[in-house]
Automatic annotation (TrEMBL):
Protein name (database record): 2-oxoglutarate-dependent dioxygenase DAO
Residues in Fe2OG dioxygenase domain copies: 159-261
Family according to the record: Belongs to the iron/ascorbate-dependent oxidoreductase family.
One Pfam family cited in the UniProt record for this chain: DIOX_N
Length: 312
């Protein structure tokens, strides 16, 4: 029996065991636990997922070596949609940089990312395999999320904006105690985070407004729900606020796979989640428009949802 992950404040991020969904005795409990995790935390660990451990560690090694490339090369990794390319260390965030791959559902986009960075054959193959594995997992989780809400739909079917962001934190002795990434929510629907195997620092906010440390747990994946999930669920799912703090003077690398929003459809709550007791909270919106609104007003911790409320 795997215990829930211990966190510093004594509370725990829910742990979801994917095996329990296939077990007729436990599956109802598993769906309930998933739904509660989405409603109360907007964040959960998945254990016993099908992504092989060696693929996870190899992909991390590949991305680490691409992040070690000279800045001139990393700058070739340009935006495709807002914020999707290389982010260099900045005066506001001198310890942080990131590479971005938009869109990991497209072989052509993976090829173009690899061309920009002169990736080797092995590096390309690894990224392609990882993208395929994440796409399959995300599709499965999308079905489970919908089913946990009593819906028989394939949540992530069709054409979605899918982005990898590989985060690197160059923590130093001087930066211990300071912020690596400031408090934010993710703008999209779902983020799958392969966090650093050894270096902690991620903190998520619980429903009492307290930050809870999410310690590394090798081989597992952390899932965060973002603003689009809150809108889709008609306000039931929590768009978890989170941040990264520098705890140790060392490099920290995480891979975030974002399921941002549908490309050809609006983000909106399905009719089944709207009734007299739960009137529609948000007007349907196109994900890219919402992202632009969020960025242009620097409303990065979920406040932009107030601007798309149906009762404004
Ligand atoms: O590096 C992490 O653990 C979290 C990164 C994150 O929150 C993000 O990329 O949106
Ligand atoms: Fe985030």
């Amino acid at each position: 029996m795997v215990e829930d992950q211990k966190v510093s404040s004594g509370t725990t991020v829910p742990v979801i065991d994917l095996r329990e969904f296939g077990d007729s005795h436990n599956s109802e409990k598993a769906y309930k636990k998933l739904r509660e995790a989405c409603e109360e935390w907007g964040c959960f660990r998945i254990i016993n997922h099908p992504i092989p451990m060696h693929l996870m560690s190899e992909t991390k090694a590949v991305f680490r070596s691409l992040l070690d490339l000279p800045v001139e090369m990393k700058e070739r990794n340009v935006d495709v949609i807002d914020g999707s390319g290389y982010v260099a260390p900045s005066p506001a965030n001198p310890l942080y940089e990131a590479l971005g791959l938009y869109d990991f559902g497209s072989n052509e986009a993976i090829r173009s990312f690899c061309d920009q960075l002169d990736a080797s054959h092995h590096q390309r193959e690894t990224i392609e395999k990882y993208a395929r594995a994440i796409n399959e997992l995300v599709f499965d989780i999308g079905q489970k999320l919908a089913k946990s809400m009593g819906l028989e739909s394939d949540l992530f079917k069709g054409n979605w904006h899918r982005r990898f962001r590989i985060n690197k934190y160059n923590f130093t002795p001087q930066s211990v105690g300071s912020s690596g990434v400031r408090i934010h929510t993710d703008s999209g629907f779902l983020t799958i985070l392969q966090d650093d195997e050894n270096v902690g620092g991620l903190e998520v906010m619980n429903k009492n407004g307290e930050f809870v440390a999410v310690d590394p747990w090798q081989g597992t994946l952390l899932f965060n729900l973002g603003d689009a999930a809150k809108a889709w669920s008609n306000g039931r799912f929590c768009n978890v606020k989170h941040r990264v703090q520098c705890k140790e003077p060392t490099i920290r690398v995480s891979i975030a796979s974002f399921m941002l929003g549908p490309k050809d459809e609006a983000v909106e709550a399905p009719q089944e989640l709207v009734d007299d007791d739960h009137p529609r909270l948000y007007v349907p919106f196109i994900y890219e428009d919402y992202l632009k609104l969020r960025l242009s007003m620097t409303l990065v911790a979920g406040e932009a949802l107030e601007l798309v409320r149906a009762d404004r």
